[in-house]
Design a protein that fits this description.
The chain has helices at 12-23, 41-44, 76-89, 177-186, 213-221, 223-245, 252-265, 269-275, 292-296, 354-357, 391-412, 424-438, 442-445, 467-473, and strands spanning 2-8, 29-33, 96-98, 102-108, 113-118, 123-130, 152-155, 169-173, 192-196, 203-204, 287-288, 301-304, 308-312, 315-318, 323-325, 328-331, 346-347, 376-378, 417-422, 482-487. It is an alpha/beta fold and 488 residues long. Strand 5 (113-118) and strand 6 (123-130) form a beta hairpin. Helix 11 packs parallel to helix 14. It is globular and about 75 Å long. The two termini are 20 Å apart.
């Protein structure tokens, strides 16, 4: 089987790519999804309390507005249902191949095409688009003795709904975005709850509320009101970028808000000390919650401000030597973000995998194309992440780049086959500019080590500008940045 475009992943990025392809008249494509349903991270993350921390009207495609969002910050079931509706409304189902995991992808230099092996069978494609996303592979730390833990163990992104927590002693490792949402939910059920906190997060109030029936009626009957609401949300976040990227010192006012938020809920000065970060707010992801701090003050909840060092049977040993016993162990330890697993399966023109090429750090031209990998594009690639706005905006910008990429290929070889491979110098120049801008950002200079940084301490995750700037940077393909390959 041969297709013009093969897309890996059926989350926001993959479905968005499919819509863009259909809207530009390309129907010869497939979306390869390893799972048995679409939805990506919003299919996989079903833990109690799972919700988005970006306002609903900004966390949707501009070409598929949803006037019926139920809350300012919608939960996982509503976001997944939205993606299902997008797939139906734009006729994507015939293109989606569920249960088709990409085992390997190899560039065929003679044929100028990609050869893919999948669990659903082999195929070839002129263009390969990776939309697996950075939050697709849970990361479990290597903890000595974990294999000998007699209780139940799972990651928050693979929540075991068949395991009863009521009446159990539960330990949670991690205090990131997922834990801040599920800990207050499970705290109500368990007998004892221990939270291992290696680094305290900055937490600010979550301005959530139900969206009224009148608001939903207005957005449905007068779509311009929904567009205006989205525009306002977008504008506010665009104005915030300068503080994150250029003037981290201005974050002190937000820190005071976060500290006040904590003091109102946590009366114990000792606990407050343990929950107070020692780095600039924004260095790590800022979390939104109204019930995180109250949950930690419950008499049956214990916060150990240390990482998990070792497991000895049912005893969990912290890095500082403190011990606790547990029946269930839940990891809220994030994902493989700077070491994308799909990179190990994609082999380019030099016969090396993307993981090998990126061994010193991920790098891509305009966050989308990688040197040595012709006709290969990554949606949500290196340095496209955001610290304060909606990733859907970045995805849509990259989809515009994909569209112009295909038009450029058609223009270069109207009767043959063409490929574009980024010049190493262009990739290096783009990333050198990014790293210079990131050097003074809060993500690099805020005094923390976050998942924004790779093993070498390099920020290969965050975009240091506005979403409008990124949209302009990815509006069109500059062929001077590419080597052109053609075949009759």
């Amino acid at each position: 089987m041969h297709v013009r475009v093969a897309v890996i992943g059926a989350g926001f990025g993959g479905l968005g790519a499919a819509v863009r392809l259909r809207r530009m008249g390309v129907t010869d494509f497939v979306v390869l999804e390893r799972a048995d349903a679409i939805g990506g991270a919003w299919r996989d993350n079903t833990y109690p309390g799972c919700a988005c921390d970006v306002p609903s009207h900004l966390y949707s495609f501009s070409f598929a507005p949803n006037p019926h969002w139920p809350r300012n910050f919608s939960g996982q079931p509503h976001i997944r249902a939205y993606l299902e509706r997008v797939a139906d409304a734009f006729g994507l189902r015939p293109h989606i191949r569920l249960g088709s995991e990409v085992v390997s992808a190899r560039w065929d230099a003679d044929e100028l095409r990609w050869a893919l092996d999948t669990t659903g069978g082999p195929l070839t494609a002129d263009v390969l688009v990776s939309a697996t996303g950075p939050l697709s592979e849970p990361m479990l730390p290597e903890v000595p003795g974990l294999d000998g833990f007699p209780g139940h163990v799972f990651h928050s992104a693979r929540w075991d709904h068949g395991h009863e927590l009521r009446g159990r002693r539960v330990a949670v490792v991690g205090t990131g975005a997922s834990a801040v949402q599920f800990v207050p939910r499970i705290e109500r059920e368990v007998t004892e709850l221990t939270v291992f906190q290696r680094t305290p997060p900055w937490v600010i109030p979550r301005a959530d509320r139900p969206i009224t029936g009148l608001e939903r009626w207005l957005h449905a009957r007068l779509p311009a009101t929904g567009t205006a609401r989205r525009g306002l949300l977008w504008s506010v976040r665009e104005l915030q970028v300068g503080t994150f990227a250029k003037h981290p010192g201005r974050m002190r006012a937000v820190e005071q808000l976060a500290l006040l938020h904590m003091r109102r809920a946590v009366r114990d000065p000792g606990l407050r000390r343990r929950l107070t970060p020692d780095y600039r707010i924004g260095c790590k992801r800022i979390l939104l919650s109204n019930d995180w701090y109250p949950a930690l003050t419950r008499p049956h909840v214990r916060v150990i401000d240390s990482g998990l060092r070792e497991v000895r049977g049912s005893t969990l040993v912290a890095s500082d030597g403190r011990e606790t016993r547990a029946d269930t162990l839940i990891f809220g330890t994030g994902f493989h973000v700077t070491d994308l697993p799909i990179a190990e399966r994609v082999k380019g023109s030099r016969g090396t995998t993307l993981a090998e090429e990126w061994r010193d750090g991920m790098a891509a031209l305009r966050g989308t194309t990688a040197a040595g990998f012709p006709n290969f594009l990554t949606i949500i690639g290196p340095n496209t992440g955001l610290g304060n706005s909606s990733m859907i905006l970045m995805i849509e910008a990259q989809l515009s780049y994909l569209a112009d990429y295909l038009r450029t290929l058609d223009r270069l070889a109207p009767r043959g086959r063409a490929a574009l491979t980024p010049r190493p110098g262009a990739v290096a120049a783009w990333n050198d500019r990014l790293q210079r801008r990131l050097a003074r950002s809060v993500w690099n200079s805020g005094g923390c080590h976050s998942w924004y940084l790779d093993a070498n301490g390099r920020n290969t995750t965050v975009w240091p500008g506005t979403t409008g700037e990124f949209r302009r940077a990815t509006r069109a393909v500059d062929t001077d940045e590419y080597e052109v390959l053609t075949r009759a």
